[in-house]
Every structure is written in C-alpha cells, then in structure tokens.
Amino acid sequence: MDPVVADLAAEQAQLSGVLEGLGDDAWRAPTRCDGWDVADVVLHLAQTNEMAIASARGAFEAVAAALSDASGRPSTVDDGAARLVEGERGLPIRELLVRWSSGADELIDVLDRIDLSTRVTWVAGPLSARTLATTRLAETWIHAGDVAGAVGLPWPDSDRLRPIARLAWRTLPYAFASAGRPLTGPVAFMLTSPDGQAWEFRPDEPAVTTITGSAAELCAVAARRVDAADTSLVGEGPDAGDVLALVRTYA
Q1: What one-character-per-residue DSSP string does 26-75 give?
Q2: Measured between alpha carbons, how far is residue 39 from residues 56, 145, 205, 223 in Å?
Q3: What homologous superfamily does CATH list for 3-150?
Q4: pLDDT at 67
Q5: Which residues are CB-neighbours of 162 under 8 A, at least 6 positions away?
Q6: Quick one: pLDDT band at residue 82, thresholds 50, 70, 90?
Q7: Segments making up each domain of the chain, as ranges
Q8: Is 28's pLDDT higher than 50?
Q9: Is pLDDT at 136 greater than 60 in this prediction?
Q10: 161-246 maps to which CATH number?
Q11: Residue 60 pLDDT more than 70?
C-alpha cells in the first residue's frame, strides 16, 4: 500500500475508534465548525469520501451533478458542503456510523487498487489520485480534530502530518491564484515534526520566502483552525504574510 493511502487508512481508523465509543449526547455536541455538531461533521466526511470514491472511479461529474441537483446550486465550495449536510441531517446515529465506516473502507480499497499517478477530477479541478488521497487525509485529520475537541478528547499530532504539510506547500500557487494574488517567487517550508525532526520542503529554485516553525501549527493554519498570529510560525520574504494568510489544504 502506498504510504499516503496507509496514512489515510490509519487516520480514518483512529477516528472510527473514537466514534464507536461515543454516546448519543456526544454526537450532538457542537463543534468548531459553525452550526455543525459531531454528527454533521461525520456526515460531511462520509459524503465527501463518497465523492472521492466516485472521482477515483471516473464518475465524479455524475455524482457531483446529482448531489448539486439534490441540494440546489451552490455558490461556493463551502456553501455546497453545507447544503449537502443540511439535506441529509438527522440520520440515525447507527446508520451514519455504518455509512462512514463502510465508505472509509471502500475509499481505501479503491485508492489501493488505482495507479496513483492517474489524473482524476475533483472539486478544485483535475489532480492526481495521490493528491486526492492526500486531500482526504488532510480533511480527515482536520475534522477528526473537530470531533475530538467537541467531546473533550485529545487528538495527538503524528508523522501523518508530513504529507499534509507538503500538500499545503505544493498547492500555494493554487491558493494564491484562487485569491487573485500574485506569488512573487518560490517558497520554502522549514518545519519541525511532532517528534522534533526537520521537515524541509524546498523549491528547485532559490526560495524568496521561507516559513519556519512547527509542522503541526502550519497544518492547523492551513486548515483554518488557528490564526498564524497565534502560533510560533515565522515568515521571511516578500510573500510571508500572504503565504500564512492563504495557505490551505482543501479546495
């Protein structure tokens, strides 16, 4: 199994372990996702995993069109996600848990069978199946933290953050283009892993901007779960402020 698919499987399995131990009241606990409780977050993960399965099988457009017709035409990606959750909110908890678990397992099976260099369609446009797997890892990590925080459980950082941090680095041109801002030149990330190792993401050409600090904090900033000003991250170069403002790991 490819390492990024193995990381996704491990992240999903860890989340499943938490979900299986929750009582009914915990599923209704509010999360840091505005207006969503734990059940809503898990429903969103199940829905987007189903979309990823369709993407890997070459059927994304049809599934996305059907979902769009069912929820109304969204104006933004976030609006679309909110409408999908609203359209299916209130599923019985046992049914929701089975849907999440079966979809998570199916996604791993599909990704493990496909050539990860294959180009597939996703919300942000064409990308490799490996990048799709990494985006699912990033989103699972983000929302697992949302769930854990809502029910008062820790979500320890691990080396599974490495591909997430790399995704944030590699997609900076997309983030800048989406925001309509120019990127002056190449960017480097000089990060420290949860266990103290150096994770360096360097461009082929000399970097004009460098971000230094905790990989966990960088990933949290990219996930829009913490403001860069509230971290120990340090940026140097002409694009430092914009990098920390725009870096992201999702469409």
Answers
A1: HHT-B-SSTT-BHHHHHHHHHHHHHHHHHHHTT-HHHHHHHHHHHH---S
A2: 26, 14, 45, 20
A3: dinb family like domain (1.20.120.450)
A4: 64
A5: 193, 199, 215
A6: confident
A7: 3-150, 161-246
A8: yes
A9: yes
A10: 3.30.1050.10
A11: yes
